[in-house]
Every structure is written in structure tokens, then in C-alpha cells.
Design a protein that fits this description.
Acid phosphatase, Vanadium-containing Chloroperoxidase, domain 1, PAP2/HPO_sf, acid phosphatase activity, hydrolase
Length: about 240
């Protein structure tokens, strides 16, 4: 019997370790609290003039795509706050900002918890699913294209981050816009997907600011960030 004890202990230890490593989503808000059907128009029909015009834009950007644009769109395929590092500076690192990192993971989780439900409602096909001429350069997804989750997340992250560091608001929101636009450059979204995502991200950001748990986390994350970046007290206009 003893010869079976060690393997069982090892298996139990590995299972426990896997459960610790697995990160469960912990959004501040879900689709139960935001009804996008009442906020957004339905996506353009697949055979509409608008979709044809948007497909032409995707193909035009594809033709103009440089290696630098490709690399940028591929890097921005990751939904995480650290994509704003080129705006925030060299001290903007996960290992230096544990409270901030945990807070923003909940912010990003909120995007998926709201948007994924409505992607399944509208089921808009992505450009490469409609035209073989589209050659994506980012990881493919066959979930509904509308609204863009990346555009939602980028806008949401940008607004929250800009409220923490209003001194860099213009640069942060410009970066958020680029982050969203890179989904068109990457070949996986239409313009209206991006526009609806930016609206959705703005709505989620506004709704989050009414929640006590969000505001408590925001203050702690903001203070840690501003301390690491040596920015001092937050300007009065953003308090």
C-alpha cells in the first residue's frame, strides 16, 4: 500500500498547485448590469453598403501595412494595461505595482463579462470570415466581431488610467485609440466594431465609477502608481 502513497501525494500537490495558479475572473460588473442592446445599434448587415465600405478600409490598411504596423498590432493583441508602458515610462512594470496590477485585472475582466454576452447575440462575422482577400496578422478569433472587445478594453483602461494620471490624459487616450485601431490593421475587425467598442468602454468606465468597490480599489491603485512614478499628489481636477 505504501508504494501508492507517494504518487497520490504528488498528484494532490500538483492539483493544488494548478488550482492556485488558475486565475478566476473577478469583474467589477457584468452584462446583467449593462444592456448593450439598448445602447448600441445593431451591427451593419453583411451585405450592406456600410460593411462593404468597411471591408474596403480593412483591405486598404492591409495593403499599406508595414512591418512596424504588423508588429504593433500583434503586440496589442494582448488585453492588458502594460501595453500603455510606452506612454507611462520605464517604471511602469507589473513587479513594481502589485496593487495596481490586481485592480486593473478586474477592470479588464469587466470588459469580457459585459461584451462577450452581446458578441454572442449579434454574431457579426469578422472580415476574414467574409472575404478571402483579408489576411490577418494577429491571432484569429471566431467570436462575434461586434462590439470589439479590444476596443472596449483599450478605451476602458485608458479612461481609468487617465483618471489616475491626468497629467498624461491626452497621450493615454491617444494610445487607447491606437490600441483599438490596431484591430483593423490586424485584419480582425471592422471600423464599426471599433466605434461601438469605444462607446462600450466609455459606458463601462462611467458605470464603474458609481461602485464603492471600484472606487476603493481605484484609490489604492492610483496612490501606488503615482508613488512609483514619483508624481506626487493627484491634481485637484481629477480627485
Amino acid at each position: 500500500m505504501r508504494k501508492f502513497i507517494a504518487p497520490l501525494l504528488v498528484m494532490s500537490f500538483l492539483a493544488a498547485g494548478a488550482s492556485v495558479q488558475a486565475r478566476e475572473e473577478n469583474p467589477f460588473i457584468t452584462s446583467k448590469e449593462i444592456d448593450l442592446i439598448k445602447l448600441l445599434p445593431p451591427p451593419p448587415a453583411n451585405d450592406s453598403l456600410q460593411t462593404k465600405a468597411e471591408l474596403s478600409e480593412v483591405l486598404a490598411l492591409q495593403a499599406a501595412r508595414t512591418p512596424e504596423m504588423t508588429a504593433r498590432s500583434q503586440a496589442d493583441a494582448t488585453e492588458e494595461i502594460w501595453r500603455f508602458a510606452d506612454v507611462m515610462g520605464v517604471k511602469f512594470k507589473r513587479e513594481q505595482l502589485p496593487v495596481f496590477a490586481k485592480f486593473f485585472q478586474r477592470v479588464v475582466d469587466s470588459e469580457g463579462a459585459v461584451v462577450d454576452t452581446y458578441k454572442d447575440v449579434w454574431k457579426r462575422p469578422r472580415p476574414f470570415m467574409v472575404s478571402d482577400a483579408v489576411k490577418p496578422v494577429v491571432k484569429l478569433s471566431r467570436s462575434g466581431a461586434y462590439p470589439s472587445g479590444h476596443a472596449t478594453a483599450g478605451t476602458l483602461m485608458g479612461i481609468v488610467l487617465a483618471n489616475m494620471v491626468p497629467e498624461k490624459r491626452a497621450e493615454i487616450m491617444a494610445r487607447a485609440a491606437e490600441y483599438a485601431n490596431n484591430r483593423i490593421i490586424g485584419g480582425v475587425h471592422y471600423r464599426s466594431d471599433i466605434d461601438s467598442g469605444r462607446i462600450t468602454g466609455t459606458v463601462i468606465a462611467a458605470r464603474l465609477q458609481t461602485r464603492d468597490d471600484f472606487n476603493t480599489g481605484f484609490i489604492a491603485a492610483r496612490d501606488e502608481l503615482r508613488g512609483v512614478l514619483q508624481l506626487g499628489a493627484q491634481p485637484a481636477e481629477a480627485k
